[in-house]
Amino acid sequence: xxxxxxxxxxxxxxxxxxxxxxxxxxxxxxxxxxxxxxxxxxxxxxxxxxxxxxxxxxxxxxxxxxxxxxxxxxxxxxxxxxxxxxxxxxxxxxxxxxxxxxxxxxxxxxxxxxxxxxxxxxxxxxxxxxxxxxxxxxxxxxxxxxxxxxxxxxxxxxxxxxxxxxxxxxxxxxxxxxxxxxxxxxxxxxxxxxxxxxxxxxxxxxxxxxxxxxxxxxxxxxxxxxxxxxxxxxxxxxxxxxxxxxxxxxxxxxxxxxxxxxxxxx
Length: 266
Description:
- The chain is α/β, with parallel strands linked by helices.
- It has one domain: P-loop containing nucleotide triphosphate hydrolases (Rossmann fold, 3-Layer(aba) Sandwich).
- Helices cover 38% and strands 24% of the residues.
- The strands form 2 sheets. The protein has a 6-stranded mixed beta sheet, with helices on both faces.
């Protein structure tokens, strides 16, 4: 398996708060790999580290065999040219049409003429089933359609690595299923590496080749969806089945309730 992205021994903190500790992950070419876990477990932080928006205190991030190093802006830009990003809720430019949203990275990062850009944009929109929506504005399309436009923009430059930040958030069941199948189909067509950050189990397990589950800044479990479904690990069972009781607590650590009430009476 060819590794497009590799994270090795990575530790990252915001001040004294440790977000990720000694994390190692491999993302192979042609694979859809999910990073799953509860809110605040460092999933989106991992995407920022892969994209070079953050720098780890320890460990390395390697893109296509090249280690990202602080201050090496040329290497960072080379790595970013190989990446596509689907932001949570799409993040379309609201004052640009659907067509111009998808054309944006082509106009910014290539010297292609407008006729070629037009053909490529319509190809990308056709791939997500929205060629007919090209002249519309983001305000004129649904949330599910907006997500598909954002996906077309993410693959505009045929990236080797496509990152998805909560691609299923806020979608209805039909749009969710369509988006999941699109992610798998486009990944296979591009022979790319897709990295999905999500907490949606059902849709992700249908399309992922491999899953990393994060808890308390560490990898709590990893494996194929089938392996994780059969796991007896308490955290894995709690997360997959959505159980209220388990290693992950609902309440944030706090003093005993009687202390708060006692303090309020003084």
